[in-house]
Amino acid sequence: xxxxxxxxxxxxxxxxxxxxxxxxxxxxxxxxxxxxxxxxxxxxxxxxxxxxxxxxxxxxxxxxxxxxxxxxxxxxxxxxxxxxxxxxxxxxxxxxxxxxxxxxxxxxxxxxxxxxxxxxxxxxxxxxxxxxxxxxxxxxxxxxxxxxxxxxxxxxxxxxxxxxxxxxxxxxxxxxxxxxxx
Length: 182
Prior knowledge:
- The chain is of the alpha+beta class.
- Helix content is 31%, strand content 18%.
- It has a single domain (31-87, 99-172), classed as 50s Ribosomal Protein L5, Chain: A (2-Layer Sandwich).
- Helix 1 crosses helix 4.
């Protein structure tokens, strides 16, 4: 079985050129980066939670996440400017392809009652957003040894010009989108 990157280079580019009639291989859209973002609102009361999240996120991603801080104070959430409120990781290159492969081939099929990803996650500029409610769907996480369960957001940044191109690219890469009954 080909890796996701090899599949993109050997098969997906050809299919995209056939469908969208690109003039050359360099015109074919590609995934440029993947950003994984975790919001940890409870970190203000219990800073130790950030350590649990960092440990598990590092296992899933294969890279140490950066801590995100509040840009401004929000009194309704009892957040002060500069409070540590989450973590994020930007993936490119080999780690990005490895993560996408594990996400589409292993993690998403493990979600109970999974019927496909919503097509509403496209932003109009070729980027796709999806949220996972629990990080334990990744095989690397041992359910009984996890201290804190958390969800996270994944943003897949492509250089596609439209949602249609981005959707076709991600579908060919193995993203299981839900089927619409139109």
